[in-house]
Amino acid sequence: MDKRYKPMTAIEQMNKRLQVLENINNNPEWQIYQIASYIRKELHLTLNEMSKITKIAPQTLQKMEQPDSNPTLDSINKLLNAFGLKFIIKSK
């Protein structure tokens, strides 16, 4: 947990995670850099903490949060799967 924030109880953490997942599901137009940044910031995670959760190097996560990022499908799947999300390609 990022030290700049007051620690959350286990129930608060669970409710916050559910809220984050709901917001992501309600915004299918978000790009991967927006999702990566949103998850980390809303859950008050440092890059190192998110790295441990996702098994993605902190430098890669930092790059994924940039609008001009070009992450691999493997990195995208690791990020999303760690939080119970799936990457789906849909045609219009």
TrEMBL record:
<protein>
    <recommendedName>
        <fullName>HTH cro/C1-type domain-containing protein</fullName>
    </recommendedName>
</protein>
<dbReference type="InterPro" id="IPR010982">
    <property type="entry name" value="Lambda_DNA-bd_dom_sf"/>
</dbReference>
<dbReference type="InterPro" id="IPR001387">
    <property type="entry name" value="Cro/C1-type_HTH"/>
</dbReference>
<dbReference type="GO" id="GO:0003677">
    <property type="term" value="F:DNA binding"/>
</dbReference>
<feature type="domain" description="HTH cro/C1-type">
    <location>
        <begin position="38"/>
        <end position="90"/>
    </location>
</feature>
<dbReference type="Pfam" id="PF01381">
    <property type="entry name" value="HTH_3"/>
</dbReference>
